[in-house]
Write a structure and sequence with these properties.
The complex is a heterodimer of chains A (602) and B (399). Chain A has 602 residues and is of the alpha/beta class. Helix content of chain A is 46%, strand content 18%. The relative contact order of chain B is 0.16. The longest helix of chain B is centred in the last third of the chain and has 19 residues. In chain B, helix 1 runs parallel beside helix 2 and helix 3 runs parallel beside helix 4.
Chain lengths: 602, 399
């Protein structure tokens, strides 16, 4: 810069203008230009490395790599050979970018095969140039630059080439020697990108496999849930008949001792099957993500007393004492019904797997933001090596000859339910001594727990849930219409209702017939199956409700479809009650009695 | 009312390059059809692919273009073998006219340019400005101006450039619709009454030493200098061997002719520069304009500081002449010897920024197309003039 300033500021005298001066200056400019060009190449190498790194598709990647050779090094065309296992250069490149479709690729490949860069990798020969001074000539080719692409282990996996043909040499005159260094950097960058690419592809493939396995598992799970849902319906229908008629027979005075015992076995087996179906259904709902939680504040003492009241009879039968040491006012965050289900399961297990005259202690401990509810039994305990199987489906640790009934999925459901409430379930057990199963759920308030005041609950204080018997006095003569396409179900309901004085039962095996009867007989109550041929229970309900005279007619759904979603749908549609099969006869009787003692509303 | 849209890119694939430019010009997903698509592209491109893609994207447009040594767009400057810049013009058909001729050389430059003027006039008599582009190697550019003026009058403003290769002086291309030519010229006549154009050129070179005298010439062909074969004298004075090519002489061999006193101040220089674009085997050389015997030619030296200070003065002139108004479009013709062969990247970008910044609004450059070519057209002393080794700016304003 200084010399140039000096030159310009000097006075120029006539004849003094030295012509060599311009040429020298131009050489200086050209040297700067070459340096500038090489710097630009490095800038472009960086730019293309960023661009190539974002390319997903293989073809696009290699075509862009070919284009980058043309752009960065200002050559006419380019090609990339990807080597196969033989390590030989094929007659034509794997990828190329050129305007000319008559490039002598086979001659280029022959030259490459004899090149030092492919014969033996030497640092001095990482880039090969074919130019004016070369011994070899390639048809129409003016100059050519080539280099190898290496893998992680420095094995040659490809060759990259840039070229200028004779007829374009005047436009692409930069001697490849000038950009040999940057070309070497470029091919290293390309090699690194390809290595990264292969690594990424491997990871992506593995991810895809995992993803596919997950999809398959989800599909299988969905299919399983659907199957279980369908099977549940199919099983519930005959179970309704089995359990219903068993209950009816139990009421008979004419049974022999042996008949009664046989009947108990039928009821026991039926109830076991029903429990199994219910639990499987619960599990399938949880796994399908269809179980919705209604998280709210739950007072612990209340829920524990409710649970104990429900298992009181079972505990009494085995002379097992249940102690509750839980202060008032402790509040946790949970779904009330589902927490109750989980606690009930643990207490039931504590009863089932306890010794006769054993003890169950229920206590609570607050830790951090959680409350732990401990249910400790004095039962058989669990061997340490079996504990890991406890919470797996059908992982029952006792054999079927033990006489202890169980579906084998109760603990699995318990764990999943509690986890859905952001809680945990666990067990501490000592073989032959007893076990403590615990539930931890988020704690909201400690109540009277300050100071760990223990409170022993006297089970005698716990009120058992009493089923109110219905007084037959004051019942009006009422007509009940029952519509169901299953004759066994109809017979069952007829027999149940036959015990109620003043009730006339009219039945229909077909929904249309049911509507006709309703229109003529004007029943006081309708019992309606849901799945029927031609019209389903909802159609019949809609029809009836459209009639002004039946606006307030109570219609009760009796169906084997016990999915919660269906229950909600039924109640929303306008059914007075949605009762599921197998029928809980006491509950059924209670509802019927309540309805029949009320004055007519229409 | 004519509207202008520009885009530029550096991309190897010619079709994709045009797509990129059109997308930049009109915005992604927008309609790209228009009246005229003007393309500047460097020598590494496939010109047939360029015009093919442009015609596909703007089926209703006249597609025009040329080869060059690099481009300047709104996006900045680039001088690779794979540059493309596009200026698209959209408006009413009666506001724009296009003319083209093939086979233009030094000896017929006047007639061919007059033919262009005739074509434009036959389409629209209200044309008040003409963008002119011709082969840059072997034509007489002053005759082109005269030819156009013979039909359109001397009041019409002629601006534009001559096409180039990458400073080799071997071949250059012009594109007209679906054909690529080597000796063609085209002109775009603007007849939008709401538009006006300001043009100005500046070089920043200093004449030095003893002049050479043209002792024998034929039109734009100089046969002898100082009584010797012209090429021998010229290369000798440059310190080069006579085997040197135009690629060797162009960067250092700007020839200067003395200007009349009346325009020296306006031009900021005593001399106007001329380039030698071609040499013949007989030792004669092709000059950019007609060069009568007796003409005195000086060698020149570049003055970096003068180049920048003159560029600043030029921008001040635009500011003053336009009354501070911002242009709706800019055309730039820059001499290829002022690009990467003269400046390093930083300085070159600085020079371009010095021209773009004053025209920009909140940092947004108006639609802009520029190229590095062999020659430039811009007014001097109120008359249309041909220049070499200059940066010539053409700013279009809406009244």
């Amino acid at each position: 810069m200084d010399s140039r300033k000096k030159r310009i500021s000097d006075p120029i005298l006539p004849g003094e203008r030295g012509s060599n001066y311009l040429a020298i200056e131009q050489k200086y400019v050209q040297a700067s230009y070459k340096l500038d060009r090489e710097l630009s190449r490095f800038e472009e190498i960086y730019r293309y490395s960023v661009q190539l790194n974002d390319v997903q598709d293989d073809d696009e990647f290699y075509e862009t790599a070919c284009e980058s050779v043309i752009d960065i090094f200002e050559v006419e065309g380019s090609g990339i050979w990807l080597l196969d296992e033989t390590g030989l250069i094929s007659d034509s490149p794997s990828y190329s970018v050129t305007e000319d479709d008559k490039i002598a690729w086979s001659e280029i490949s022959q030259w490459l095969n004899t090149c030092e860069i492919l014969q033996e990798r030497k640092k001095a020969a990482e880039v090969a140039i074919l130019g004016d001074n070369s011994d070899v000539t390639i048809k129409d080719m003016h100059h050519l630059i080539a280099s190898v692409i290496l893998d992680k282990d420095k094995n040659v996996t490809g060759v990259i080439v840039g070229f200028v043909k004779q007829d374009k040499k005047d436009f692409y005159e930069t001697n490849p020697v000038e950009y040999k260094s940057s070309f070497n950097v470029f091919r290293q960058m390309l090699g690194t990108l390809i290595i990264n690419r292969l690594d990424q592809q491997l990871i992506l493939e593995q991810l895809r496999e995992v993803e596919k396995a997950k999809d398959d598992a989800e599909k299988a799970n969905l299919a399983k849930s659907q199957f279980l849902s369908n099977m549940s319906h199919e099983l519930r229908t005959p179970l309704n008949a089995i359990l219903g008629f068993s209950q009816l027979l139990e009421l008979s005075d004419s049974l022999t001792q042996e008949d009664s015992e046989n009947l108990k076995e039928i009821s026991k087996a039926g109830n076991h099957l029903l429990n199994l179906i219910n639990e499987i259904l619960d599990l399938s709902k949880i796994e399908a993500g269809r179980l919705e939680m209604s998280i709210e504040n739950v007072e612990v003492k209340t829920i524990l007393h409710e649970c104990v009241s429900l298992v009181n009879t079972l505990a009494n039968n085995r002379s097992i004492k249940i102690d509750i040491a839980v202060p008032k006012g402790i509040v946790v965050l949970a779904d009330y019904m589902r927490l109750k289900q989980a606690i009930l399961n643990l207490i039931s297990n504590a009863i089932k797997y306890n010794h006769e005259q054993g003890t169950i202690s229920i206590s609570v401990i607050a830790s951090n933001d959680n409350l732990r509810i401990n249910i400790t039994d004095t039962g058989v305990g669990i061997p340490e090596d079996k504990i890991s199987y406890l919470f797996k489906p059908f992982g029952r640790l006792v054999d079927d000859k033990s006489g202890v009934e169980g579906t084998g999925i109760g603990l699995t459901i318990t764990r999943k339910l509690i986890e859905m409430m952001n809680g945990q379930v666990g067990v501490n057990s000592k073989y032959q001594v007893g076990s403590t199963f615990w539930i931890e759920v988020p704690l909201i308030a400690l109540g009277e727990m300050e100071g760990q005041i223990a409170e022993n609950a006297d089970l005698a204080e716990v009120d058992s849930q009493q089923v109110t018997s219905v007084d037959s006095q004051g019942i009006y003569t009422k007509k009940i219409l029952y519509v169901d396409d299953n004759p066994a179900n109809i017979r069952l309901i007829e027999k149940i209702l036959a015990r109620k004085p003043g009730v006339e039962v009219i039945t229909a095996l077909d929904p249309k017939m049911g509507i006709d009867i309703a229109m003529t007989e004007l029943p006081d109550l309708v019992l309606l199956d849901i799945h029927m041929p031609g019209m389903d229970g909802y159609d019949v309900l809609r029809f009836l409700k459209k009639q002004q005279r039946f606006e307030n007619l109570p219609v009760i759904a009796l169906t084997a479809n016990a999915m919660q979603k269906e229950v909600e749908r039924g109640l929303q549609a306008g059914f007075y009650e949605y009762l599921t099969k197998p029928l809980d006869i006491p509950k059924f009787n209670k509802i019927i009695d309540e309805l029949l003692t009320e004055p007519l509303k229409y | 009312m004519l509207q202008f849209f520009s885009g530029s890119t550096r991309m190897v694939n010619s079709k994709r390059a045009i797509m990129d430019c059109m997308e930049a010009a009109f915005g992604e997903g927008n309609d790209t059809d228009c009246n005229v698509v003007l393309i500047h592209a460097s020598m590494g491109h496939n010109y047939q692919d360029l015009i093919g893609q442009a015609r596909e994207m703007a089926p209703g447009a006249r597609v025009l273009g040329c080869s060059c040594c690099g481009i300047v767009g709104s996006e900045g400057v680039s001088e690779s073998m794979k540059d493309v810049a596009v200026m698209a013009v959209r408006g009413d058909d009666n506001e724009i006219a296009v003319a083209s001729v093939d086979g233009i050389y030094g000896h017929n430059s006047f007639d061919k340019a007059r033919e262009l003027g005739r074509q434009l006039k036959s389409q629209n008599t209200s044309i008040n400005m003409v963008y002119f582009l011709a082969s840059g190697i072997d034509i007489a550019d002053d005759q082109c101006i005269k030819g156009l003026e013979a039909e359109l009058g001397s009041d019409v403003t002629i601006f534009g450039a001559t096409s180039a290769d990458n400073m080799k002086g071997i071949i250059n291309y012009q594109m007209v619709d679906d054909k690529v030519y080597e000796h063609a010229a085209f002109a775009i006549g603007f007849a939008d009454p709401s538009l006006s154009v300001l043009t100005k050129a500046t070089h920043g070179f200093v004449a030095s030493g003893e002049p050479m005298t043209v002792t024998k010439s034929d039109g734009n062909r100089i046969i002898e200098l100082d009584g010797q074969p012209a090429w021998d004298v010229f290369t000798s004075r440059l310190g080069l061997d006579s085997s040197a090519t135009c690629g060797d002489t162009i960067p250092i061999g700007a020839l200067a002719e003395q200007l009349p006193d009346s325009v020296k101040q306006e031009y900021g220089n005593d001399h106007i520069l001329r380039v030698v674009t071609k040499k013949d085997d007989d030792g004669s050389m092709h000059y950019a304009t007609v060069c009568p015997e007796g003409t005195r030619l000086w060698l020149t030296a570049r003055d970096e500081e003068l180049i920048f200070s003159e560029a600043d003065k030029m921008m001040e002139w635009f500011e003053k002449e336009s009354g501070g108004k911002k242009p709706v479009a800019i055309f730039l013709a820059d001499c290829l010897a002022r690009g990467r062969y003269l400046f390093n990247k930083v300085m070159k970008e600085e020079l371009v920024a010095a021209m773009q910044d004053p025209f920009s609004t909140d940092g947004v450059v108006p639609p802009w197309i520029g190229m590095y070519g062999f020659g430039e057209f811009a007014k001097l002393g109120g008359k249309n003039e041909y220049h070499n080794y200059t940066s010539a700016l053409y700013a279009i304003y809406r009244d």
